[in-house]
């Protein structure tokens, strides 16, 4: 009887700790969402999101803090994809030398993907549907049955431009895919397409400026 009581007390204490942690996570998530929303509203009024150069120039005025803020913005936007067009990634890339900028972008997107993957593992489809339309969600879920199909879809999403790779990471979190596999897929298949995208877009943007402006 005493052993049973002790076991129940341990389980109850464990449940209380989990609930406390969940409350903390919800509060942090709420604060982050509010902060990002305010940033988006102010940034839109200042036309920061008209082009990657405008956003990058703003961060440059902040010095070293600008690099840190740009890095954090990309991490947050990977988890909560609210800024379209890859602007945070392009801005962070343009803040630095090509190789350094690329490494910063890869580190930020990898960190954001890990956090996103773990949040989905914890909160399930409710978290996913908060940031992905029902149409995208349904189309991706139909193609994923297990870790094998999730791996195949993730590879395609990472390699093919325009594929919703952030959404795919979330969907993969709903399967039995392990975090280690997801990280490995990111490290193997994301670097080359990411570099080509960053280098290609910035080169095109600079060519347009030099040619027509």
The helicity comes to: over 70%
Number of helices: 11
Shape: globular
Order of helices and strands: HHHHHHHHHHH
Radius of gyration: 20 Å
Low-confidence stretches: none
User: Strand portion, in percent?
Assistant: under 5%
**What's the number of domains?**
2
Structural class determined from secondary elements: mainly alpha
Overall pLDDT, averaged? 80
| Termini Cα gap | 83 Å
Number-wise, the strands total 0
The major beta sheet can be summarized as: none
Tell me about this structure.
This protein has 213 residues and is mainly alpha-helical. It has 2 domains: 1-45; 48-212, no CATH class. Helix content is 81%, strand content 0%. The chain contains 11 helices and no strands. The protein has helices at 2-45, 52-60, 64-79, 87-95, 98-123, 125-129, 134-141, 147-159, 165-173, 179-189, 191-212. The longest helix has 44 residues, at 2-45. The protein is globular.
How is this fold's topology laid out?
Layout: H1 2-45, H2 52-60, H3 64-79, H4 87-95, H5 98-123, H6 125-129, H7 134-141, H8 147-159, H9 165-173, H10 179-189, H11 191-212
Quick recap of the structure?
Helices cover 81% and strands 0% of the residues. It is mainly α and 213 residues long. Helix 2 (52-60) packs across helix 3 (64-79) and helix 4 (87-95) runs antiparallel to helix 5.
